[in-house]
Write a structure and sequence with these properties.
Distance between the termini: 37 Å
CATH topology: Jelly Rolls
Number of domains: 1
Radius of gyration: 24 Å
Helix content: 10-25%
Strand order of the largest sheet: 1-8-3-6
CATH class: Mainly Beta
Strand content: over 45%
Shape: elongated
Number of helices: 3
Number of strands: 8
């Protein structure tokens, strides 16, 4: 190797030592689903008006995507789906639905507050609720385990029932 080539190689190595590798991107549609979430029934004799039931649903985001928490720049909830597991189930009895998410800090972030119009047609077995604008949940996502609290109000069944709860999120990540 000539002296000029050696000097050029040394200069290139010196310049490249200051370079920083970075990459970023979006995970546009990640679904977190908990199957068979049990919701307790409310006996008729215990009712005064529309009963309210609150159910915690836990998950660890690292079970969904194995990325270090530091790589997330933003995590936004874009939608929620509740699907009845009962044959021929109809979720029209749900008049009011509120969802929050929290991490180990315990600070709850409201994801949605749905209210059903009584004049609306029956919902059916699946209640799909878009969250617009999307709700930023990064503080909870980065402090697992996460707890989604589902609060349901309405003419709830007397017996326990189960639903699949799906939360659709989008995330911006980068190194």
């Amino acid at each position: 190797m000539t002296k000029a080539a050696t000097l050029l190689l040394a200069a290139l190595l010196a310049l490249s030592a200051g370079c920083v590798l970075s990459a970023s991107g979006e995970l546009p549609d990640v679904e977190v689903t908990r199957h068979g979430v049990a919701v307790p029934g409310v006996p008729l004799e215990a009712r005064v008006g529309d009963p309210v039931v609150s159910v915690p649903v836990s998950f660890d985001p690292r079970d969904q995507i194995s990325l270090d928490g530091k790589t997330y720049h933003s995590v936004r909830v874009r939608g929620v789906v509740f699907k009845s597991n009962a044959a021929g189930g109809d979720l029209s009895f749900v008049r009011d639905l509120r969802m929050t998410i929290s991490g180990v800090s315990g600070t709850a972030i409201q994801i949605l507050h749905y209210q059903r119009d009584e004049a609306a047609p029956p919902v059916g077995a699946t209640l799909e609720i878009p969250v617009d604008p999307p709700v930023e949940v990064l503080p909870a996502w980065n402090a697992p385990p996460c707890v989604i609290t589902v609060e349901v109000r309405g003419a709830l069944p007397e017996d326990s029932w189960t639903v699949d709860v799906t939360v659709r999120v989008a995330a911006d990540v980068g190194l």
